[in-house]
Amino acid sequence: MTVFGTGYLGATHAACMAELGHEVLGVDVDAAKIERLKAGDVPFYEPGLPEILKRNIEAGRLSFTTSYEEAAEFGDVHFIGVGTPQRRGEYSADLKYVNAVIETLGPLLKRPALIAGKSTVPVGTAQALSKRLSEIAPAGDDVELVWNPEFLREGYAVKDTLEPDRIVAGVKPGGKAETILRDVYAKALSTGTPFLVMDYATAELVKVSANAFLATKISFINAMAEMCEAVGGDVTLLADAIGHDARIGRRFLNAGLGFGGGCLPKDIRAFMARAGELGADQALTFLREVDSINMRRRSRMVEVATEAVGGTLIGKNVAVLGAAFKPDSDDVRDSPALNVAGMMQLKGAAVSVYDPKAMENSSKVFPTLNYSESIEDACEKADIVLVLTEWPEFRNLDPQILDGVVRQKIIADGRTCLNPHTWIDAGWTFRALGRSVSVLPQ
Ligand SMILES: NC(=O)c1ccc[n+]([C@@H]2O[C@H](COP(=O)([O-])OP(=O)(O)OC[C@H]3O[C@@H](n4cnc5c(N)ncnc54)[C@H](O)[C@@H]3O)[C@@H](O)[C@H]2O)c1
Ligand SMILES: O=c1ccn([C@@H]2O[C@H](COP(=O)(O)OP(=O)(O)O[C@H]3O[C@H](CO)[C@@H](O)[C@H](O)[C@H]3O)[C@@H](O)[C@H]2O)c(=O)[nH]1
């Protein structure tokens, strides 16, 4: 089988399919990325992936290429995992990479094949691509399309791919796709993973509705954080208390800076745009509010930090701990942490950023910020320390390490991940989104 696109999704999928025993060829237009992967080097940070990649390359089950001709010859199942980013200045998804795969691969398909779409696409895409394939593939209707959306989380990508919660297959009635895909995922299915077969449109909707639900859950708790700020309550106690109700559940109720990354923000916007195109925009107007609550948290963080240092950031040193959009990832796409760092710099602060894994990516997208080698280096003469990504080394930071390093002992928790007492007891002024220090129980 082949996997087109070897980014966060595609490289993980390719390596994990090889781990399941398949012969896999990863294909990308980025020659530098392919060279690194060939050498067994994962071009991004994903725990557990380097080991699987190397093991399967050495076993001869996994290889990489930039050649579509080689790929068409190599496999009879072709996964598509290329990017579907937000269009510049619009809400909708840009399908140019998915279309490019179909337009280039389609004419090379001379024998029966299954194309399995994994990229996140607007509802209606699979139907259109299926029609297009039957027009351009020499094997005609013997080239079948299945929509098989991916639900992996970065940081847990290997486990999520090898042991998914469910496998969704959007199929055309009467085809062979279900049988072939069941065979591809036989190992996961043998452990009882649900295999859910449905039409193309529902499969596409499952993916975006799952992300819309997760985004809504996060924005809900962040709206409660706003309420806690208005009355002096504590959103973490609130989340724990409502989370005990099994119908609500505590997972994905962590308040703070909100959601970023290459998926949730762009996916809810693309979903709204598609609803509009379908004349169903009213169904998703609530997602506008989900998006606004989410973006407001970033400016609120800047306000909280500015108030804490006396009302202005001009002439102030700000240490920012965290740049990745979440821990266990080096991904900085739509990172709330970098967004806050940038806003504070624009308001006159000298900002120093430290992240255990995302420094290289951050300096590419935000070259004007200062990047530090360590926590202590970032906090040198800081007037305030901001924790904006909850890496374990920040969550468990010992305040004593910063004694004599910072200029003022003020810390602001943007991810409700610190124990306030640890900092207050060490003589620090503690601020957090959604938590009022005056009401904290001992
Ligand atoms: N990252 C995730 O956690 C995740 C999870 C589930 C779904 N998704 C979805 O998967 C898709 C890919 O996301 P990603 O995060 O891996 O993106 P990414 O930007 O990391 O990777 C995309 C890759 O596709 C390659 N590419 C572009 N055009 C190509 C072409 N014509 N032929 C071959 N390769 C080409 C790019 O060079 C790049 O390496 C998106 O639709 C995303 O929404 C991502
Ligand atoms: O309680 C929470 C949980 C998450 N987040 C933030 O939400 C964002 C997204 O987190 P997460 O969903 O864990 O990361 P992703 O890797 O972006 O995964 C999401 O997006 C993927 C791409 O579509 C899907 O496959 C996954 O199922 C979906 O969880 C991050 O900025 C987190 O900091 C919170 O603010 N509070």
From TrEMBL:
EC number of the protein: 1.1.1.22
InterPro entries in alphabetical order: 6-PGluconate_DH-like_C_sf, NAD(P)-bd_dom_sf, UDP-Glc/GDP-Man, UDP-Glc/GDP-Man_DH_C, UDP-Glc/GDP-Man_DH_C_sf, UDP-Glc/GDP-Man_DH_dimer, UDP-Glc/GDP-Man_DH_N, UDPglc_DH_bac
Keyword Cell membrane assigned: no
Catalytic residues (UniProt): 263
Pfam assignment, any one: UDPG_MGDP_dh_N
Catalyzed reaction equations: UDP-alpha-D-glucose + 2 NAD(+) + H2O = UDP-alpha-D-glucuronate + 2 NADH + 3 H(+)
Pathways per UniProt: Nucleotide-sugar biosynthesis; UDP-alpha-D-glucuronate biosynthesis; UDP-alpha-D-glucuronate from UDP-alpha-D-glucose: step 1/1
Gene3D superfamilies: Cytochrome c1, transmembrane anchor, C-terminal, NAD(P)-binding Rossmann-like Domain
Any one GO biological process: polysaccharide biosynthetic process
Ranges of residues in domain UDP-glucose/GDP-mannose dehydrogenase C-terminal: 319-420
SUPFAM superfamilies: 6-phosphogluconate dehydrogenase C-terminal domain-like, NAD(P)-binding Rossmann-fold domains, UDP-glucose/GDP-mannose dehydrogenase C-terminal domain
Binding site for substrate: 151-154, 207, 252-256, 260, 326
A GO term, aspect molecular function: NAD binding
NCBIfam families documented for this protein: NDP-sugDHase (TIGR03026)
Protein name stated in the entry: UDP-glucose 6-dehydrogenase
Native organism taxonomy: Bacteria, Bacillati, Actinomycetota, Actinomycetes, Mycobacteriales
